[in-house]
Design goal:
2 copies of one chain form a homodimer.
Chain A (H helix, E strand, L loop, with lengths): L1 H11 L7 E7 L5 H12 L4 E5 L8 H5 L13 H12 L4 E7 L4 E8 L4 E6 L6 H4 L4 E5 L3 H16 L3 H19 L8 E6 L13 E6 L20 E7 L5 E7 L5 H13 L13 E3 L2 E2 L1 H18 L1
Parallel strand pairs in A: 1-5, 1-6, 2-5, 6-7
Antiparallel strand pairs in A: 3-4, 7-8, 8-10, 9-10, 11-12
Chain lengths: 313, 313
């Protein structure tokens, strides 16, 4: 039971000597980097180490061409070394992380990383095993509707990685069986499941920011939201208990894309007040592009921030 | 006390699940590879993993040019990661070892290594910290006289690494202060100190193999040699108790270069009989070049082999 052992070791380790660990899982182009960037900005890069745990590939791009699986398949990755590195970070120890260069598809010089007060590990497989999950204080999974994620992936891979739309579509198609088998099942191990999407029942004008639906599972203690929010689902923000797909009870926070800054601010303030932290919430949460703020993203980041700071106490 | 913790963890771990670990320390060109190769050959590559622990450099060759120290300096190496990897191997776990390419002076794709029944870790720093030392069942240090080592280094670096004699001499000179400060002090932590050298008092004809002087410290239980060997130091092989440089008592086995194969065979047989292993000693011990055998090397390898197999029991 190595997962129990790491849990025990973490409990025994002086909490000032080990970092608070957050996992952000989700498929390719599901918004992990956007979410992470805002958190690092809010905490400060001196206090927070963000790592992408997708560099534990067994094969380089050339070798992979001859193989019947995509990088989503666990057999394509040294999951055991990822587990090992997450355990080491969780116990406050440094790692020498492999580095995969996406531009050339080869491995380069490994990177020496020391944990800081907070460690955010984002990637495709951070919640894939009992042992990885045992390393985290808080776990999140990004679960946008597939059509939205495909749009995001096409936009990003064409703009930043030099692919054509057809190439990205073919890639998405070839990855679909492994997404279903290995990536999406991690959703059920997250304390918080985040779904950015337009609200199906509404015809919001184009340009309305996406809404967020945050499933807040009672696996960790969330901030009290019921003081501020009603369960009237006609309001721009509301909280509702429901059953998840597997029947387990959960809270569900909806933040509509058209929620006003003022409404959001009130909720932010209430969450922040539950923390014993001076000052107000970090001002730049929710920034999508410089100067462009999404209230649903800001609230999502704030709730994650709440958990990180709470765990530090 | 992380060194105590690793010792305890190793004791607790089912001994069939963790490898027997041998360290072979020593300066550059002191004969580590020759010694290791014979051991791997004797045990079989399927049972024995040999790793060189000199790839934990912090800097590549270009970066090092601007720095005031050579690769012998601990600050030039991620000693903490080497410690971590030795601990992992010692507990039977895999590592992703960094790989430094000596031909280009840069870092390349890391190597996934799983421990086998036996692990031999050879290099410049395997005995440099309490924590590394706690990972080993047996520790050896190669301690040839400096003039012999210099000859070996010039021969090897010119033949295999494309340097000129002057370059190697300059390199040796620049490394000398760090050899003295960081490499040679590891000698005192070895269970076995091996010194290949001509015998100063004799004028053996050229071509006589080097003699071996093996200091067998009572830090581990050595095979009983006193049945077979006398302490008459005029014989080709003899055993003698003496004080080491620091005054501690130790056994010292001398095997002269001119010892006959027959004399050596008798001692080999007696050592092997103390092990509960079927068959006789591996036939190719002591091979320097194909078909060329050194009895002193063969006996050195046999004694290390004895300890590896004994620890496995």
């Amino acid at each position: 039971m190595p997962d129990k052992i790491i849990r025990m070791q973490r409990s025994e380790t002086d909490s000032s000597a080990r970092p608070v660990m957050l996992a952000i899982g989700g498929d390719s182009a599901s918004g992990k980097t956007t979410l992470t960037t805002g958190l690092v900005d809010a905490l400060g890069a001196d206090r927070c180490l963000a790592i992408c745990v997708d560099d534990y590939h067994k094969f380089d791009r050339e070798e992979r061409k001859k193989l019947p699986f995509t990088p989503l398949h666990p057999d394509c990755n040294y999951i055991d070394i990822m587990e090992q590195h997450l355990q080491l970070l969780a116990l406050g120890r440094p790692i020498l992380k492999p580095v995969y260069d996406h531009s050339t598809g080869t491995f380069t010089r490994p990177q020496y990383l020391e944990p800081k007060e907070f460690v955010i590990a984002e990637g495709l497989h951070p919640l894939s095993t009992k042992l990885t999950r045992a390393c985290f204080d808080v776990t999140a999974f990004l679960d946008p509707p597939e059509e939205i994620r495909h749009e995001w992936k096409i936009k990003r891979d064409c703009a930043k990685r030099g692919y054509t739309v057809e190439q990205v579509r073919a890639d998405l198609e070839s990855r679909e069986p492994e997404s279903e088998q290995f990536i999406r099942p991690q959703r059920r191990f997250a304390d918080i499941v985040v779904r950015f999407a337009p609200i199906p029942s509404r015809a919001d004008p184009p340009g309305t920011p996406l809404s967020a639906e945050l499933m807040l599972r009672p696996t960790i203690r969330h901030p009290t939201l019921s003081n501020v929010l009603s369960d009237d689902n006609r309001t721009a923000m509301h909280l509702k208990i429901m059953r998840d797909r597997d029947g387990t009870p959960t809270d569900c926070l909806h933040v509509h894309g058209h929620a006003s800054a003022e409404e959001a601010r009130q909720l932010e303030k209430s969450i922040w007040q539950e923390l014993n932290v001076p000052g107000g919430p970090p001002p730049r949460l929710g920034e999508i592009d410089p100067g462009v703020r999404s209230e649903p993203l800001a609230l999502t980041q704030l709730i994650l921030l709440y958990h990180l700071l709470q765990a530090r106490e």
